[in-house]
## 1
Amino acid sequence: MKLSYYPGCSLEGTALDYDRSVRDVCRALDIDLLEIPDWNCCGASSAHMTDHEIGMRLPIRNLLLAAEIGCDILVPCAACYQRLKAADKALRTDPGFWDVARFSGDFQIVHISSFLARPEILAAIEARVIRNLADLPIACYYGCLSLRNPRVTDAPRWEMPTTLESIVAAIGARPVAWSHRTECCSGSLTMARPDISEKLVGDIVRAAKRAGATAMVTDCPMCQANVESRQPAVEGVGDMPVFFVTELIEAAMSGTYPSKQQRAHLVPPGVLTGIFSASTMKKEGPA
Amino acid sequence: MDNTCISPDERSEKFLRKLKDRNIDVQACYQCGRCSSGCPVGDFFDINVMEAVRLAAYGQEEKLLNSHTIWLCAACETCATRCPNEIEIAGLMDVLRELALRRGIAPAEPRIPLFHQAMLGSIRSWGRAWEIGMIGNYKIRSGDLMGDMRLGLSMFMKGKLKLLPHSIKAKSEVKEIFAGKGKEYDR
């Protein structure tokens, strides 16, 4: 299978390890990723929040580059996904307004966990698990932008998504039922108003703990960075690692959790390290 | 929100036309309050979400542009997602922020637009967001030099912040995007 790949800026910086694990997981599943040549930033929240025209034209350029390749575009970042989808809708509605003569791309924009949760991909992952995650109680955290607004994202179940739960169950972790799966962590405000982010992150992590989770998993690089980095300032939290979904898949499929990856976390990922350092290698199918 | 009366004299027809052009149907609001009750940052707002929608329907541009609310909105889209009338409320906030900047209205939360501008400055220069450059720019412009120092250092030590930017090849295309085609705005 061939897919165009749009990593986005976070995956070249604060979420470099996310990029690495996406590429490794796809390689293991025989999925060829063709990085969109010379892609530019999608503008993220900052562009559309302050300048509509720039906020549309930045992702439009990427779509026109992707249209030349013609494959579906795999997008690991929730914010990039939402911006590309918004541009896609605008182009299909009225390409002329955006100075595009014709836009007939029949390719889809695909967010990573929707892709990995497809039955055939999930089966391929499951078949390759050599070490399952030992019933790790984990809170699946979606955040905002891969789901909302559904008129833009086309997310089928925006209030009750299940993709992350299906994926972590397939690798032997135990998704907990909890309240804050789609709550905002205020990533777009985290630098300018850390006090707001601390409140929201505190609420989210406490809710995950209340449900019995010892770790969180996400598919959004802003959520991952924000929820880990704001915990130390909040009383009663600070020990909840947030994993990328592909990081967990890679660990389960390779049977190892390398120290390089452990060090990428701001909150020590001891719960996962513990599973992988256990003396007995178990190969067990998920129940 | 303060209790001063609003007057039809303050109604901005231009603003209402702008909302119409962007398909933001604030007139459809019947004040059910789902937007306000789901808003994750509503605790910090001076004008709550449903009040903002109603003020917009009355064309009360000035009150909105001077509010903290428009800057504190995190663009999470919970309001627009849950609105029974599918009013694009997050889109309304986008329009308000852009109008405030274009009109040079002093923002009630000055650091927030400085952050967005630092981010856009980075994209304009390199075609991609370069985190260290963006953070440095924001710190200097906001005067918030010490905030998150330890966090930044620890991210740097973990190799999560790149020392040098990656510049895309087609910088001229990005420059053109930032120059704008002047289609959308008449002010």
Note: Residues 31 and 194 of chain A are 39 Å apart (CA to CA).
## 2
Amino acid sequence: MKKMITLNVNDREYDLVIPVNRTLTQVLRENLKLTGTKQGCGVGDCGSCTILMDGRPVNSCLVLAAEAEGHKIETIEGLSEEGQLHPLQQAFVEHGSIQCGFCSPGMILSAKALLDKNPSPGETEIREAISGNLCRCTGYQKIVDAIQSVAKKV
Amino acid sequence: MLLPKFDYHAPTTIDEACSMLGHYGAKAKILAGGTDLLVHMKKRLLSPEQIISLNKIEGLKEAFSQNGTGLVLGPLSTAAYLADSRLIQERISVLAQGASRLGSPLIRNRATVGGNLITARPASDLAPPLLVLSAKVTLKGPRGERTLPLEDFFLGPGQTAVQADEILTKILIPNIQGISAGAYIKLGTRKALEISLVNTACFLELAQDGSIKLARVALGAVAPIPLLTPSVSKILAGVKPKNMDDPVFREAARAAAQESKPITDHRGSADYRRYMVEILTWRTLKNAYSQLMEKV
């Protein structure tokens, strides 16, 4: 079964015809070529597929693309403006928070959702906010440092 | 991991969803948050031919106060919503505590209370808080609507009283008359995305004279279903504890451990779990009672 859907991704509307068993991760990566969103475990454990849905971070591997219709979707590609990295992206670069990079898009989006809600979180709140995102390089401290550095600036 | 093939339906009213489910019966599955169903489908534990999503139906995502009867939770209220809602935090904080410990922040933004009950996992984070709050569930099917206490809802791991053509449409939490407090503790080996080794919820309500009018303790991950412990309620009813260190709480906790039926698995041994039931029940009771002492 296929379905015609309209997705709002990074403030752009996309009209698509997709099989209904496609997840949002698959459609973002394969139909829209937005490969910043990663497919990791596929079952909601690792967080590498994190995207923002109406401002809230979710595992896009557990969202049917058809169910994302009518919601505002934000991916890592939507963060930079006019070639300028988002402050969080810049901080990840500066703090050496990116090792293999597979978790970075998800980490950054979880952190963005936190900072949008609470501009000056403490370390505990930061660690809680990224607790659904696994970094298999185990570089958590530098990730927390990067987020904290942006939190201070706000 | 890929999803198997299915047909997808997104009805806009409960009645429409019910008639679809009536038509497809056991071939269909209801989709709420999808954090459990889609995982099971990816692992090929389930391959429903039809998916009926409730997400296009208005008004199922919130909790509201219903005049006279209590609180109504929409079945699609997410764990994040329950954890952050002012209404839930103020009126039934034990549920907000349970919801805040479910999965991860990412999962909590999708996982729903209805889904958490329907999947009927023994380690559910929402069932013990809802059991101690004497919650009832409303099921709607082709033969009409019925409401049953949550304690009659769970039949076994993954098994509930819901018929193949029924939809969970409401969760009701009766009004609480007196001063009350609750507490929830989840024991796991890590802090996020954890399946409980043991979890415990308790709820205490005081009578006018300061004695305990109602005590309820529920346990997770130590029986085939989330378990209420009547013996604890019996021990504490009518008691006027001296303070939170009163030995009666330890006695009640020991009774809870005796009621639990844990098994040994890779997460922990039965003996360890039984002992943890005692400790955690004791701690939740002391916590709830100290909250009560601050309120009077």
Note: The first strand of chain B starts at residue 7 and ends at 9.
